[in-house]
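Dear Dr. H.,

I hope your travels went smoothly. While you were away I took the liberty of generating a structure for the chain from your last submission, since the lab meeting agenda had it listed for discussion. I wanted you to have the full record in hand beforehand rather than looking at slides cold. The sequence, exactly as received, is reproduced here:
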Amino acid sequence: MKKILFLAVLALMFAVSCSNGSSKITPSGQHDDSDQSGSNDGDTEIPDGGDTADSESPDGDDTPDTELPDGGDSSDTDLPDNDKIVEDLDFESGFIALESVEFSLKSREDKTGKAMMWYNFQPADENPEKKPLFVLYNGGPGSSSGLVFLYNTAKRTADQAFSEEGFAENASSWTQFGNLLYVDARQTGFSYGIIDDPENRISRSGYFSTSNFSVFVDAADFIRVILRFLKSHPALESNPVILAGESYGGTRSTAVLNILLNVADYSENNRPFYDETLFKEIAEHFKKIDPSLSGMPSKEIVAKQFGRQILIQPLVAGQEQFDAEGELLERSDSPLYTVQEETGRKYTPCGNSWNCNKHNRALQYIQNAGRDIYAYRKPYNWLFDYTDVGTAKMLQMPMFQEFILNDPKKINELYAENRTGAFRYGSTSGYSRNIEESPSFQNLPELEKIIMRSRMEQRSAKPLSSGNLESVFGTLPSYDEYFVDLNYDINSTFYSASIDPYDTVNGEMFLENIRTVKTFITQAEEDIIIFAKGIPESLKSFDGVSGVTLEDDSFTVNFSDGQSVLVTFPFYPESSHSVSVNQPEKFFNDVKNWLDQ
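The corresponding predicted structure, in token form, is as follows:
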């Protein structure tokens, strides 16, 4: 058995391979061993890779405490070829290779390392070639996307409410109205990083820098995966794409859409992020859809394909959102006073204290009262405990196969012998070190420390099953892992970047996006981490917004230039942070009705 992950937020994810063969399983469980995606036609030499730019940065981007000679360079490690065409739309899983690319963030030149990105594709029940593609993921940052995959959006569900020991056919499967693509972020879930010498601890540690982990690099990863998936599936290449992100996934969706919609402006280096190869790939994609296009596509052209987003309890407005949530949580109608009545544990608000963070105080109170910050009516860490059950199921063979609905044994890159250069952790021993004493933990925002401590406590008390994947795919070295639900090293690195998840630019991009993109945001009553009413409230503080009007199931943003934008904002009175866990049927119906509008 592998080492046990010492952190959590549940996750997982599955994927379709452009680079290796896969077999398919019909929803009834019958196997079809025909090769749907083919085998590798050969490796493509990838130039230079993984330099993590360890020189000191004037803008405050993170630099390792120790000088790292080659910080994740993987120039000699070839990646599988992505140029595979899949004609049939069927269940498939695998990896998409990400090469090393040069970019700049706030004028700082940098370079990413290589990665293998895991994804799972589930076609629509009927006429998939005519249906939109939903791209689903969780957040963290550093979480896999197993939670949305396992809990009541995919064809099958691991939810113990429907099947205590195994799986159930999902009555609320989103395949009823679209194609589903689940993606694990770099170094999370089944996705893994690649360097030349993974046995070298310093090289592994060097990979965990803002060269590979920041709001914009993460968004660029997802854009590449989406475009390469579309390219390899011609039947879907011009279909509508709908992003569906949970929690930090809202920030990811915001950055992904902002780059896509404004790629012409980004390509002129008028934005904080510049990635020439990414912008060219975006232009090539839209030119293939419409050969009459020249240069970068306009916002209007992009919006024809990327014109909707679904955000599940999202962070979209950075620190401004958390500040607004804190104010609302101190009002007389706050759920904190309900918890006080039920538990007898006194809640003391910050009031006018200048050095008291109201949102952090609310979270600390909920924890001290023995309740879950993701579901205040439930016991402490209830959500993690509940969804760990589904994750443990998925890590068992052949249950893994039943959930992804194709044969994982045909995915070459899962086997230990084929994971050349693969690794997950900077430390040799995973999470066995005392991470609270690490400099990266100490530099986290206080809110992230609160969240991380609860995850560590839960994972220490109830370790996540390591499963038996090694019995099929082989034993991995201590610095690697088949599945990682939440990678602490990633989470801490994001907050060292010059633009982090709390930055005001995230809210500015979100407001810019919703002028063009139809937006659906969940409003879960029990979630205190993302107390959703704080989202419309926070938007009032941004330049260019003249007001925000809140209705029962929507809110309207009024811009100073006269434009008004309606955001769908349905209320989920029995839901935690993960709406698909608690109210999957209502969520399904709300999304279906929204799509028809």
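Two observations you may find useful: Residues 161 and 221 are 34 Å apart (CA to CA). Residues 1-74, 429-433 have pLDDT under 50 and may be disordered.

With kind regards,
E. W.
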